[in-house]
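Lab notebook, design round three. We kept the backbone fixed and only want residue identities now. Task for the bench partner: fill in a sequence for the structure below.
Input structure tokens:
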């Protein structure tokens, strides 16, 4: 089966609706016909300062959420990035293949390093996309399920794969981004001109682990647009369009069907229904996450097994790379 790899940062107490609809749902679906490798990317997390105890806890909570959402550890390798040292090792080789100007063009770095209150910027934040390329290439992944904001990082990954292959001989599979239609960029509820993100104020971000009341309140307070008709119009009505998209993602009804359904009703009705479909979908995920976190020893066993499986693929790839670039093998 073709391989798939993706990763998510353990940098918040909960994943959010953008993570779920932009990426995690596709993680779950792709397991059916791919050999999947999914990692909690703690190496990426420390590109900005983290409290050690909080990071450790969030790594476990992240793994629990992924399992609760349907990542199946029988079929897929679910692991913590730092448990597989080959990521950092291939990351170094990839850094030596990346142009400084090429890395400087990454828009996410420019956004993150210039964001208000960002503090001093680390070199790790700068080379972050290069480590991401190593994550993907180590597993010879054919597909990488991500949201729209990762498209440029995937382009860099492909460029680095091409460069390595032409310099040292065919080594890496060329990965394709796997970006969903419709939900590739879920918008913030308070600032529907921006993607939903944990770095914006919490009121605009639906956390998967928020209780139903908090979620309903955030949706009720979502910024809508002038006018009163519930119709999709990404340019003129981004807020309403975002709510319709979210509704559609959970209810399975198309946006066109929803426009018909809401003909003659107002934004209040739309928000009520969005809150209902979202909270109904999240309730079982929250219950399952809590169950899994009640036995962290078992959770850690699942992650250890995932890391062992991941290393089984990552180690031979790294060995080939070390040999091709001319490292003397240790006796
Ligand atoms: P991260 O942790 O920021 O986000 C995890 C995934 O969620 C997607 N996403 C969104 N999709 C739609 N709408 C949104 N508002 C939204 N916000 C986030 C992201 O696109 C991502 O797919 N660099 C990655 C982590 C990473 C990775 C990798 C991904 C490290 N190594 C290898 C793929 C392959 C990141 O920061 O994701």
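Proposed sequence:
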């Amino acid at each position: 089966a073709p391989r798939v790899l993706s990763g998510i940062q353990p940098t918040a107490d909960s994943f959010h609706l953008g993570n779920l609809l932009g990426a995690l749902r596709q993680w779950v679906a792709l397991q059916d016909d791919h050999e999947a490798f999914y990692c909690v990317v703690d190496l990426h997390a420390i590109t900005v300062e983290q409290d050690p105890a909080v990071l450790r806890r969030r790594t476990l909570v992240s793994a629990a959420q992924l399992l609760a959402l349907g990542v199946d550890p029988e079929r897929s390798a679910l692991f913590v990035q730092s448990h597989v040292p080959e990521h950092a090792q291939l990351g170094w080789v990839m850094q030596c293949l990346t142009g400084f100007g090429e890395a400087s063009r990454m828009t996410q770095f420019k956004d993150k390093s210039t964001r208000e209150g960002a503090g001093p910027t680390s070199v790790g934040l700068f080379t972050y996309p290069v480590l991401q390329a190593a994550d993907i290439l180590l597993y010879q992944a054919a597909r990488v399920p991500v949201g729209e904001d990762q498209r440029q990082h995937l382009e860099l990954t492909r460029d680095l794969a091409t460069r390595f292959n032409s310099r040292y001989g065919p080594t890496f599979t060329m990965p394709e981004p796997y970006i969903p239609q419709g939900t590739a960029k879920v918008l913030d509820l308070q600032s529907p001109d921006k993607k939903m993100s944990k770095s914006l104020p919490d009121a605009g971000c639906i956390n998967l682990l928020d209780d139903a009341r908090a979620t309903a309140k955030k949706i009720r307070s979502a910024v809508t647009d002038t006018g009163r008709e519930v119709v999709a119009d990404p340019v003129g009505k981004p807020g309403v369009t975002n709510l319709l998209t979210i509704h559609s993602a959970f209810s399975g009804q198309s946006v066109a069907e929803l426009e018909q359904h809401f003909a003659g009703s107002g934004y209040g009705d739309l928000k009520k229904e969005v809150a209902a479909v979202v909270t109904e979908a999240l309730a079982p995920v929250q219950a399952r996450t809590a169950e899994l976190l009640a036995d962290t020893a078992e959770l850690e066993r699942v992650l250890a097994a995932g890391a062992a499986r991941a290393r089984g693929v990552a180690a031979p790839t790294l060995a080939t790379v070390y040999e091709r670039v001319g490292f003397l093998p240790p006796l």
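Keep this in mind before ordering anything: The chain has a mean pLDDT of 97.
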